[in-house]
Amino acid sequence: MNTLWIGNKSNWQDKNADIILRMADRLDFIPENMLALSTNEIAKYIFESHSIADLIIINLNLLVGGQKHTENAGVKLLKFLRLYNLNQHCIIYSFLSREQLMFMDTQNLIIFSEGITFIRLPFDFSLLPLKEIANKKAPENLSAYFKAETELPDDRHFFANWWGVLQLWNIQKAVEKLAGKTIISNIETSFSGSLKEMNSYQGLLARYIKKTPISNIEHHLKELSAIKAEKFLHEDRNRNELQQEIKLLSDNDIECNIQIQILKETLAESQTGFFKKLLSQLNSYPPAIQRKIEEIQSRKESIKNQVFNDQEYLELTELIEYEKNSIYELNRKINRKINSVISALEENKNFSTNEFSLELIRKKLSEEKPQIVFVDDQANDGWAAIFQRMIYGDNSDSFSVIQPNEKDSIDDISKRIIEKIRKTKARLLILDLRLKGEKGSITEPSQISGVQVLKKLKEAKISCPVLITTA
User: What's the whole-model pTM score?
Assistant: First the structure.
């Protein structure tokens, strides 16, 4: 049984180490120089060098990185170990009781979790059944002991940036594994600022509580592939035929809308058209009689026309309502069909034409390596690396990166993009929405730097399509 002891050098530790060594096969100590580092750095060292240890002993009042005994650095170290998914049983000891430690800081709840043996000093270590304890590992999910500590930072946009990079990388690894790769090279070192944030305490908390195992991602990808394969099993039309069908359906949709509009206008005018008939019904008589006749005739015609009007209006209303329902139903059917076809185009999986299968598209991308320009103020925080891996399968000279900063003007950014597109003859521009470090919520979309740059690019009539991204 391998045991690791994390504590500051002392005579008391030396005495009890002899006891532990008699019960264990091996006992290691953290090097003294490591205790000058932060709890996160120590935890990372343990993860990399001692992850096979069967049991870990931790002094809760550990002195690390210039901290005091009263800061209970051992608790923070224990948290980091769990966040690094090290679930070995931990013996933790202190002169304070667990209740006292909780009174000092309510975020010390982890000391009550499974996989922990708490010892209040003084204590005789020879009384510990080490081998029996070592078998009681911590559960894989201790989220309940961490949830109260999670908090979104003030700059939520940056949080979304590194989280997006991490999630894309997890999916990419699952995709590569399903494609048959046995060795998947790591690109996390190229995530720069994102890597720092995702390995901070709050970053590790988010990853631990919100994590999605790679096996789950693989399972969902397999399910989606099966659904798509079944959906397009009997689909034998190519992309051009589908686009022509969409155009025809769209034309029919426009025609339906025109018919509905004409019927609405007819309905609005129908109530006044009948009264024009009254003027043609009057004859020429002496003025007094004419006026009397006109009064009676007016009343008579008014009643008659109102009856006719109501009758015709009722019939017309029923007819229009019937026509409207018919056209609306036709419209709905057309829209459903349009959405279905568009969905087929978007998913682009197994069109059953050898020309447009997803596998062939990926192969073509990796062979041709089309020129792409990527513009993002956080491009080098992981986005450029993961996009290249997804598109080309690895880093590529065909992928040009422009990383603006806060001081760059919209005109300057636009000019650099236009020049790069023309120089590389780019086939695609990937443009992020926030290019000048904007933080917080933006209530007016037209003020976002990426939107302003896009307007400039449209005015310049750039030669390639634009893919807008945002975290």
Answer: 0.61
